[in-house]
Design goal:
527 residues; 39% helix; Purple Acid Phosphatase, chain A, domain 2; seven-stranded mixed sheet; globular; alpha/beta
Length: 527
């Protein structure tokens, strides 16, 4: 047994070496990023090969030895270029993809750990398998020799003939073990390399890159983006940290309670957002709210992406998915017109539950919905281009959801991006849909009663934008004001909805409104 353990340890060490010399892969802002551990390095480096490299001093150590991290982003610059020119409309959204450094560090750490674990376990298993195969071969060879060459003297001669091979195999294995021990086990007296001197670019003072050394062909372009970096990364991170802390302090007063319903009701509460429009800064606020209230489901009525046009927009949902997973929250998503099939695919890959006409059940609640049939890709406007075409597409969407609802055996909550779809599903859903949640308008409306087929009433509620996108009534509707990256330009909304599990009836809605000046208002029993 001790021999097996020693072999497993040897295999684990070999696997660890393999994990160190090969890169882990993590997605950052839609780009595949290769990440290596660099033993002996006192700096961390991240960059795009041959274009730009950011270097920052690191004090990280492992077993007394310094360890740096090197990351190389496989970036497709075509995402930020239109007709041969830098697309300044898209740059803020891309820079904002890096506005939650805590989450980025968590993603890299998680992937590095699992990368090393896979290699260590794989190395141990591989060595045990190889050793087991060799041991089986030795047994088979002895049996073969004994059967086909019963003369003991002849077998001894045969073994003597193969002895040099065995001797060299043992010597090579021993030499490898010695090399590994010398290379990996720290010496009794540490001889740490002198820390490399990193000189921050003075032009980037006052930004998150203040203590970072910038080199490479595109370093002047990074300097030119100083204001973008300060506003859409540095200020954004601090702004939403403050907003989250103010919310938690408000909740600590104990004045917010979840709907409990009447006697006999089994009430479930879930979070509801709409039209996040890639405001990943609000993710930490939303998740902190639900975690503090003990809510384990978050429903989105769509438009979670910027436009559904660019690969980097995967961060629009990846950031939320990672934070929700750590808080034990299940995300239920439906596509809006600013999302795309790529957005829905990203959501599935990130572990979110997506509504694509099938019923999704979580926490005793059943949701039904489908992606918005319209599209709003960047630079194209909304499609179909005609009002009649859009109306026809939405009518077909509502009919499809209603057909699924009519075959259900329990109450359903319909989630659609456009309010007209939600209302039609309530009317045509055979009385099975008792609540419709939607967005799109960026303006809160309801809850309103809608008569159901066969009698009774359902409820419809339209949420305001969780990303701070302006509604039609907004006074300032400039392009800069319409951006939902960076600090809030308009009010943002997050809701906690209470529903009776048995009947599907709406019990209550609590509204959390966040203003650009970081004020928080809470309205219980909305409507």
């Amino acid at each position: 047994m001790l021999a097996v353990l020693l072999l497993a340890v040897v295999g684990a060490v070999l696997g660890l070496i393999g994990g160190v010399v090969t890169p882990a892969h993590v997605e950052i802002a839609g780009s595949d990023t290769r990440v290596w551990l660099e033993p002996g390095e006192t700096v961390d480096r991240i960059g795009v090969t041959g274009l730009v490299t950011l270097t920052r001093a690191s004090s990280r150590t492992l077993a007394g030895e310094p360890v740096g991290v090197r990351a190389v982003i496989d970036f497709d610059a075509a995402q930020l270029v239109s007709n041969g020119r830098l697309n300044t409309d898209v740059v803020p959204a891309y820079v904002a993809a890096y506005s939650d450094p805590e989450q980025l560090v968590s993603d890299v750490r998680h992937e590095l750990i699992w990368h090393l674990v896979r290699w260590v376990v794989g190395g141990a298993v591989a060595v045990l398998l190889v050793t087991g195969a060799w041991w089986w071969y030795r047994r088979w060879r002895r049996s073969f020799d004994h059967t086909h060459d019963p003369d003991g003297a002849a077998r001894a001669t045969s073994r003597a003939y193969r002895r040099p091979e065995r001797t060299w195999t043992v010597r090579i294995a021993g030499a490898l073990v010695v090399v590994l021990v010398v290379a990996l086990v720290p010496s009794g007296r540490a001889h740490l390399p002198a820390p490399r001197r990193v000189v921050g670019n003075p032009v980037l003072a006052g930004t998150p890159l203040a203590d970072v050394e910038v080199s490479g062909l595109l370093s002047p372009a990074l300097v030119a983006a100083r204001n973008y970096i300060r506003t859409y990364a540095g200020q954004t991170d601090a702004y939403y940290d403050t907003l989250r802390d103010r919310l938690l302090a408000r909740l600590d007063t104990g004045t917010v309670t979840l709907p409990v319903g009447t006697a006999g009701q089994d009430v479930a509460s879930f979070g509801f957002v709409a039209d996040r429009h890639c405001n990943i800064g609000m993710d930490r606020v939303t998740v902190a709210l639900l975690r503090r209230l003990g809510v384990h489901t978050l429903v989105s009525a769509g438009d979670d992406a910027f436009s559904g046009s660019f690969a980097f927009e995967s961060v629009c949902t990846r950031n939320l998915a990672q934070q929700s997973r750590r808080a034990d929250i299940t995300d239920v998503m439906v596509g809006g017109n600013h999302d795309s099939p790529r957005t829905v695919r990203d959501e599935r890959d990130q572990g979110m539950k997506t509504l694509e006409k099938d019923v999704v059940e979580t926490d005793g609640l059943r949701f039904v919905g489908s992606p918005d049939p319209r599209t709003s890709r960047y630079g194209e406007g909304i499609r179909p281009a005609t009002a009649a075409g859009r109306t026809r597409a939405l009518d077909q969407q509502a009919q499809g959801i209603a057909r699924v609802a009519c075959s259900a055996t329990a109450p359903l909550i319909a989630v659609a991006h456009d309010p007209t779809v939600g209302e039609q599903v309530l009317r045509d859903g055979c009385g099975k849909v008792t609540l419709a949640l939607d967005g799109h308008t960026h303006q809160q409306a309801g809850p309103e009663s809608v008569p159901l087929t066969g009698g009774g009433e359902g409820s419809q509620f339209t949420g305001g934008s969780a990303g701070g996108a302006p509604g039609e009534a907004a006074v300032d509707r400039t392009f800069a004001s319409s951006l939902t990256v960076g600090p809030l330009h308009h009010d943002a909304f997050v809701y906690v909805v209470g529903v009776d599990r048995k009947s599907g009836a709406l019990v209550g809605i609590t509204e959390f409104r966040f203003t650009p000046d970081q004020q928080i208002s809470i309205v219980q029993d909305v409507g």
